[in-house]
């Protein structure tokens, strides 16, 4: 940090997201020295009436996941927890936010030198229904002081998007972090965006999609644009199809009420998988500047054609409706496979198959790029499968290329093998940061590269809204599948129809 103080305010501090993701990410940053006790204050805000110590006790157990924690770790936990204070109040209560502002200001002053900067990061670990009122409260009562005194927001002082040195000159900043779901369809998302947009400028709004913080998702840009290998191959002439797959081996237990309102398409495909698709399919950005990258992502999204009903398979696992918070007649999909088609010069005719499911036989997220057959094959190796390039996002990050080699031995026969880069082996001893940890650090640094811009969000909803409305209206219904299975068999048939040639089980 430069001179001054940083206040991180977690709204919804007693909720699940805050406990499981936000506070542990902050703790990791603290442990690595990114959050210095002489500069940083952390505040929790929620409706529950508890004391500072009660909040600290609630969080403590979530901070260290590793069972072999040392005494140094426990000391770090204690020091970290000392930075946290709690204020209770409703999400639309002026008094609550006035009190919050008083607390922030008090501790800010203690850590702020006379010419120091006031930086306030508001993390909304809350349901989107309260975003508008919370944003209004923050805007009216809790902005960083120097900006408020000059009566100007970050953006309109200079009329240019901000970068760090500018914000520094202007006396700090206020930023807000919001989580998906951003709305339920195009219209509701646009309404939400306008409401927030009236209160904050785009450079102050950080829309998190935590998949953009995953190591191997971030690696996609490097892989594609820093390697000569991929440049000539990454197109419709060579690639037969692309699969982007998310599987979980557990159901929606404990969050059926939330899930049933959204379903797998809104929960995973419209955001996490679509963001990955953008990075796989986009053209090379002019530079690594956030706006350049996001410009290219928007172009991909705008080139996606309307999804055809016959290229969608929905599923719902048996037992999903047994959850008391799920209606007995729910037609919410817990599984979906669909084909997206990108109408541009690079990808015309290449199916992008997005697949996501809960309660399946394994937990895995991967990108599988399948290449076309070799023309004029003299080895008759077609039956062994095609070249594939697989990027496993989790678990056990890895990239591997499936290729045909000579079967070692006296015969001139072929076999499928792999060039394998497994991160666990190659980067032994390197800790891969948690997605939230990295994204919160980006927010503090003012780097929006890995956050979703408003027009990107709009374009993403434009792709899925017609399909989602047909599902909501009961025109498309999910097929049943057994928990612990691969999902409905019809999904494999759709894959085959889209041209995917199975090599071996995955
Ligand atoms: C969340 C979804 O965004 O991502 C959850 O709401 C899902 O339903 C989770 O379980 C998966 O995240 P990860 O990082 O475990 O793949």
Can you offer a commentary on this structure?
- The chain is α/β, with parallel strands linked by helices.
- Helices cover 38% and strands 21% of the residues.
- The chain contains 16 helices and 15 strands.
- It has helices spanning 16-31, 52-63, 71-82, 94-111, 131-141, 145-150, 154-158, 164-169, 186-197, 215-225, 256-281, 290-302, 423-426, 435-445, 454-472, 489-497; strands at residues 4-11, 40-46, 84-88, 117-124, 172-179, 205-208, 239-247, 312-317, 335-341, 351-357, 364-371, 388-394, 398-406, 414-422, 479-481.
- A 9-stranded mixed beta sheet has the order 14-13-12-11-7-10-9-8-15, sandwiched between helices. It has a 6-stranded parallel beta sheet with strand order 3-2-1-4-5-6, with helices on both faces.
- Strand 12 (388-394) and strand 13 (398-406) form a beta hairpin.
- The longest helix is centred in the middle third of the chain and has 26 residues, at 256-281.
- The structure holds 6-O-phosphono-beta-D-glucopyranose.
- 6-O-phosphono-beta-D-glucopyranose is lined by residues 210, 248, 267, 365.
- One of its GO terms (biological process) is glucose metabolic process.
- InterPro entries: G6P_DH (IPR001282), G6P_DH_AS (IPR019796), G6P_DH_C (IPR022675), G6P_DH_NAD-bd (IPR022674), NAD(P)-bd_dom_sf (IPR036291).
- This is Glucose-6-phosphate 1-dehydrogenase.
- It is found in: Cytoplasm.
- Belongs to the glucose-6-phosphate dehydrogenase family.
